[in-house]
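This is your field. Have a critical look at the following sequence-structure pair:

***
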Amino acid sequence: MKRLLYGTTALVAAGLAAGEASAASGLKLGITGFYRNAIGAAWGNEPAASLGGGSGTFGLNSFGRQNVSMRQEIRINFTGQTTLDNGITVGVLVGLNGENVMKSGSTTQINRAYADFSGKFGLVRVGEANSALVTDCVVDPGNVTSNFGVNSPNESFSNVGFAVADIKAGPFNIPTTIGVAPVGSIGTCFGIESKGNKIMYFSPSFAGLTFGVSFTPTGGQRRAGGGLSYGTDVTAPGPGNAGNNVLSVGVDYTHDFGGWNLTAGGGGEWALTQYTPAGATTNNKASWYQAGLQVGIGHWSLGASGAYYVDYQQAGYAATTASPSDDGWVATAGVSYSLAGVAVGVQGMYSQWGQAAASDQKIWGVSLNSSYAYGPGISLEAQFAYTAADYGGASVSPFLTGLPPVHALEVDLGTAINF
């Protein structure tokens, strides 16, 4: 199952076990990763082209778009690990986005890269990695696939939620963002920054309780070394950035009660510094609060998760209809059943986003998804999903007022191969 627990208990336990190994030796190179491919089709209502008042609109659900698309995701992880004479285990991981390695001008070849130092004290991690909140994040168990779902899916073929309209301004047509985000980019386990260079600490397990803390001065930026960056200025001014000096905290608890088991977690993430487009500091600092709960009973698993976004425009969900002080929230619930390599899940998501001079935008969806273990590390996946958005009477120009609600029906097939 995908993302049943972004926890550190197993990770720290592995580090502690490795600490019992013999004397130090050089790091041994290992290679892991995955290959995923998905095809999806989406159908929905289409707002009239005249809404834009310019040359047309796109992104308002399926208007101006074909119904079928395909995507693939490739990850290659180079790993190494050794245990020193003092019992401390040192490991390193460099993960490549295979789809971007050969693309000219790509800035995202490195998905993550970090070093671990683990022992009885827990685990210390330095480098470009997910924050403590994201690593420890607990989601609902309604998604049993690696590709799909409606809570932060890796792949979404729905066009609901985010819109761009060409607004007529004299002889020009100006693309204008309407709405918060595509439905596929909404979830409860994203945090406010993405793999900035950071230092992290994860505790060992205390009777099932673990916690993690991380800090990054760079926000969502990635500052390369080796003479490619100079000085200490890592500011990222303007709406839509992750802020700077980001503190993240996550806590998990797991316990097996015999006939059933419990997983619960929560945490917060705060940008301690935020900048305006002109480079001045601002009081509208992004923060994020998350909680999740799962209960497993036999072959069944059920639970819920939620997140509250403070000043969400500052955390990358910018739109012309939002102000820097607008907040949003997301709630999800799900249930799944697995037996003999077959798993079926149902997941629901509902969210609301504040908008300046308009009522909240509402985005929601439901997913029926399944996976079949075709072989070791090989899964075949499918999804039927319904997604919808109500723009809450948002208006971005005299030509673009009272946007109608949109919806889409999505049918997907995919593969997931781990190696």
